[in-house]
Amino acid sequence: MSEKINELRQAFSEKLESAVNTQALEEIRIEYLGKKGSVTGLLKSMKDLSNEERKSFGQQVNMLKNEITEAVAKKAEQIKQKELEKEINSVPEFDLSAPPVLDRGSYHPITLVQRECERVFRSMGFTVEDYSEIVTDYECFESLNIPKHHPARDMQDTYYLTNGQLLKSQTSAAQNAIYKKYRKALIEEGKPIKAIFPGRCFRNEATDACHENTFFQMEGVMVDRNISISNLIFFMKTMLSEVFQKDIKVRLRPGFFPFVEPGFELDISCLICGGEGCPSCKHSGWLELCPCGMIHPEVLKAGGIDPEEYTGFAFGLGMTRLAMMKYGVKDIRDLNSGNLKSLSQFTAE
Amino acid sequence: MFLSMNWISEFVDFTGLDKLALIHQFSLSTAEVENEIFMKGSDISGIIVAEIKSVEEHPESKKLHLLKVDAGKEELVDVVCGAPNVRVGMKTAFAQVGAKIGDITISPRKLAGYTSNGMCCSEAEIGISDDNSGIMEITDDIPNGTDIKDVYQIDDIVFEVDNKSLTNRPDLWGHYGIAREFSALTGRPLKPLETVDLSQFSSLPQIDMKILDPLCQRYSCLQVDNITRNVSPVNMRVRLYYCGMRAINFLADLTNYLMLEMGQPMHAFDSRKVSKIRIRRFDSPFTFKTLDNVERNIDENTLMICNDENPVAIAGIMGGLDSEIVDDTTALTLESATFDAVSIRKSTVRLSHRTDASMRYEKCLDPEMTVTAIGRFVKLMLDSDPDSKVISSLTDEYAFHYPERSFDFTKAFVDRYTGIEISNDTIVKTLESLGFETTENNDVFSVKIPSWRATKDITMKADIIEEITRIYGYDNFDVNTAESPLYPVRMAEEKTVEDRIKDLLVQKYNLHELHSYVWVYNDEYKALGISIEDNIRLVNATNPNIEIIRRSIVPTQLCQVKYNTDFSQEFGVFEIGRIADGVDSETNLCNERKKLCITLFSKVKSTEQIYLELRDILAVIADDIKYESLSFEKIEAKHSYQHPKNLNAVICDGKAIGEIGVVYPTVAKKIDKKASIVYAEIDVADFAGIVSENMVYDEPSKYPEMEVDLTFMADRFAPIGSAIDAVNSPLVKKVSVADTYTDGSGKSITVRILFSDKNKTLTREEVSAVTDKIIENLESQGISLKA
User: Fold this and answer.
1) Taking 90 as the threshold, does the pLDDT of residue B736 lie above it?
2) Which stretch of A71-85, A269-283, B277-291, B719-733 has the lowest confidence by average pLDDT?
3) What is the full DSSP assignment across A269-283?
4) Distance between CA B722 and CA B716 in Å, rounded?
5) What is the spatial distance between Cα A165 and Cα A134, in angstroms, rounded to a whole number?
6) CA distances from B358 to A349, B259, B263, B344, B689 (A)
7) What is the CA radius of gyration of chain A?
8) What local confidence, expressed as pLDDT, does residue A235 receive?
9) In B309-394, where do the E strands start and end?
10) B504 in reach of chain A (CB within 8 A)
């Protein structure tokens, strides 16, 4: 009987050797271990044996059965491994060295710098206000201490409309409305007015690489009981350092704007040379960046705020200029050109 | 305006101070100085006074002369000179061997066979005038060999101040006012202007003069006679030249000199032509020839100086040709006046003729200055031309006085404005140095505003702050944050909506944000065949192509798309911008709206495909930002760019917020012959104003879902959707269009309906009950299942 077992064992191991895939292996497993399989057959033949023989034979058959089961499992693992290797090898190594396809949309560069500024000012507690482009003479001039025939009206060539309104020549045109909107909270709840108002402005002038009739500014105001020139310098320095992501030096010079007193021209240390002097700052080390000043008492009054009680500062940043500085745009007209070859480059938020 | 440091230092002693540093400080404290500073005279050296002892004609050249020159040395020097004005006994500027003129060093040099040991120079060569007609004439009293820099003020530092930064400072339009600023900056005293006391002439006859118009504030005049000097002293001419003016003759130079020194324009008339000065306007227009020989149109608003009825000058702007000083003039009438600044400015604009005088008058000059200027004029005149004579008494009418201004303010007021500590002493000293009479008592200051700052510049306490702080120096400020309380910042809904829309369009749909102008582009519209619709207009557009404010962004965006057809096979652009939808009839104000405009362009997809894509973009915007769905309703085309068939109102929360449409075929073809172009325009405020639906969580069923496809013979989805809605079954979770197909039997739409029940596994019977009702409903409308 044990010869029979050995023969079987011998035959199995030869067959197993020849099995190359999962299907062949399964056939072998059924041939030996299936209901009608050879090993099962051996067990069935035990009923003819004596008790003693049966016991020892049974043990041997069971051993064989275990051996075969184990060998099949092992072989199955091997085949699986081989098939996996084959699958892996069948796939080529993909080429990442080709240029990637960057199909994406773009923001207008003004949106990008505006958002950057808004982020900085919001982090310092400024609200972001929106304002119309068509305004009244009162909003753009009268309320800003620029009466009729004031030379300041000559300085800005304004686009007037047939109904007597005008295209705002400066974002300051929103000041009066903002004071009126927040004066109650200021006076009754002691909430300081801190607002920025980005917007599009218009000047009636011929366009060239440096001049546009349509451009963006961002005005900011802060009004409270004790706002000082010292505070103005602090806020401008802090905020501009955030906007430009580097420590900026600022310098004030007297400047005349009817809606501020004292009024200043604010210079920043040159972004290119840091103040050493280079062609982009005409070797002065400074760049003239934005007009600012303490809000004129008449302007506060026009907004319903008592200048004896409250003071404030205001500033105007040229968003268009900032965008040109930041991205190295040389011709201002590119910004309103609608030319996708230029504008589709501004993909990153 | 150019300013000479020599001139300024006549009034403030700069000994021991760095002048360039002072100019820099001036720029930070008073007015912007241009970057380039001119070091006059620095490029010449070794030029001395020499006398021509003999002149011989050059044997071969008609132009050249052979000179022997006494340069103050023992031996005469041989010089070859080509100037026409050489003569024996003449003294001139001589560049000796070793002298430097610009980059040239003078050395012995052969000229047409003769050696020249130096060069006689013209004024232009030395850089003190533009006269290059001959060599410089120097007066006999200067010893030969003297360096001309020791004789004349040729070395000077000249800087330029941007006129615009002086608009509000009438007192800074002359060197004396500028000197006052330097006095305050250096703490050194300002010397008084030397003048002649005019009261000594009070016994002489008055001039017949009357102000007949309130636009003349003050008119002062004086007659002088016997001015024999023709050429001005060199130093005067050098200063005028350095400050950008040409020397003309002594009298003209003197009036210009006065203007540059004091900021007071002056004019001299031939006394024979003005015996009866009247300042007035005329009722009707006429023409008038000014001394530059230009015929100008004068209207009834222009103030004129007249000899009785006869105009002789445009007040504050320019004199007339007929009353100008001529060769045989002996007696002249000197005018020193002030006029209404606005009137001068408007006349200047009307005449489009701006002069050095009108530029100053526009700034509101101090009327107190007129008489001082005459006193100064007479002083300078007598200094240089002692034979000249005053022949009238000072005639002066002072019709309009600016109110005297004085303010009281407290130390606390200064502290609050500055945010730093500036001592009482510094405050008083600063204001005094600028001419403000100031007293301080118990932290209360009283200041009297000097006349030259009281015409418009300083009108209130805050103006005083500027005076204190600018001289204190902004660079010296301590920088402190504000002590204001902090509050959270809430974003305006519209701003948030705008930002979200931009992010979605750029980041999800790869669209490009553009900016366009707010007006109609006439030429570009015409090129696309878009008719120009009337709207509010610009009244003063300089470019005829831009005049009408746009009613919609769509046409301007289509113009931009046209410009970009080569950019890519397929692209989309958008803008959030403004339009004016006419004028409100009640308020007469423009109805300005903010719009989102999107255009999709494709050369590879069908119009239907991109139209549906655009529909989906809008739907995602509404869903993402407001959690709302959209519906569309066909509307009638009203504009030339709209497609009559494919134009729909976009409806959100029951309100039309904009439109979506296909571009009119001829317009589209003009943009690109083969491309599909669709657009949408949404009112941003209307959309932002919609109250957001709240997002509600719908727990998914634990039981299997069932999907059923039904194919109907139908042109549109709408009736199918309505039929599904009509059943109102809670089991219907989602409806989508799986396919559309058109064959010989017509168009069919395959609708996929997803069924699900939260509490149990659905049976086919339950689902069929719903679908049967849908089919039944549709069949009653003549829409059948596809066989």
Assistant:
1) yes
2) A269-283
3) E-TTTTTS--GGGTT
4) 11
5) 7
6) 52, 11, 11, 7, 54
7) 42
8) 94
9) 310-314, 318-319, 332-339, 389-390
10) no
Residue B131 burial by CB count (10 A; 0-12/13-18/19+): exposed, middle or buried? middle
CB burial readout B463-477, b (16+ within 10 A) else e: bbbbbbbbbbebeeb
- To the nearest whole Å, the CA of B472 is away from the closest chain A CA by 12
Q: How far apart are CA A132 and CA B672, in angstroms?
A: 35
Tens digit of each residue's pLDDT (9 = 90 or more) over A140-170? 999 999 988 776 676 558 899 999 999 999 9
The least confident of A26-35, B43-52, B618-627 is A26-35
Residue B328's pLDDT is: 80
Whether B514 and A341 lie within 8 Å, measured CB to CB: no
pLDDT in tens, B695-713: 888 888 999 999 999 999 9
Q: What is the dihedral of CA B768, B770, B771, B776, to 10 degrees?
A: 120
Interface test with A, best of B466, B537, B549 (most A CBs within 10 A): B466
Could you tell me if A20 and A79 are in contact, meaning their C-beta atoms sit under 8 angstroms apart? yes
Chain A nearest C-alpha distance from B30 (Å): 6
Confidence check: pLDDT of B303 > 70: yes
The residue written with tokens 């904009």 in the block is B658
Query: Which residues of chain A make contact with B349, given a CB cutoff of 8 A?
Result: 154
CA dist., res. A127 & res. A195, Å (int): 5
Tell the residue number behind the tokens 């295209």, with chain if given. A167
CA angle A249, A255, A259 (to 5 degrees): 115
Cβ-defined contact of B518 to A339 (cutoff 8 Å): no
**Is B547 in CB contact (< 8 Å) with chain A?**
no
Contact B111, B93 (CB under 8 A): no
Rounded CA-CA distance B103/B586 in Å is 74
Tokens of B318: 């320019």
**Nearest-angstrom CA–CA distance, B403 and B482:** 38
Question: Which residue is closest to A127 within chain B, CA to CA?
Answer: B489
Q: Among B364, B431, B456, which residue's Cα sits nearest to residue B183?
A: B431
What is the spatial distance between Cα B342 and Cα B352, in angstroms, rounded to a whole number? 15
Which ipTM score applies to this complex? 0.86
Alpha-helical regions (H) of chain A: 2-18, 22-33, 38-44, 51-90, 109-123, 137-140, 151-155, 175-189, 229-244, 297-302, 319-327, 340-343
In sequence order, what are the beta bridge partners of B742?
B747
Q: Are B170 and B13 in contact (CB under 8 A)?
A: no
Give the 3-state secondary structure percentages of chain A, helix then strand then coil, rounded to 5: 50, 20, 35
Indicate yes or no: CB of A202 within 8 angstroms of CB of B518: yes
How many CB atoms are closer than 10 A to CB B1? 22
CA distance A51 to B578: 104
Q: What is the pLDDT of residues A65-85, one digit of tens each?
A: 898 889 889 999 999 999 899
CB A200 within 8 A of CB A216: yes
Highest mean pLDDT: which of B466-470, B544-548, B718-722? Answer: B466-470
The pLDDT of A106-128, averaged and rounded, is 94
Helix B424-433, helix B175-186: angle, nearest 10: 160
Q: What is the CA radius of gyration of chain B?
A: 42
Q: CB distance B482–A264 less than 8 Å?
A: no
B-contacting residues of A 78-107, CB under 8 Å? Answer: 103-107
Integer Cα distance of B485 and B490 in angstroms: 16
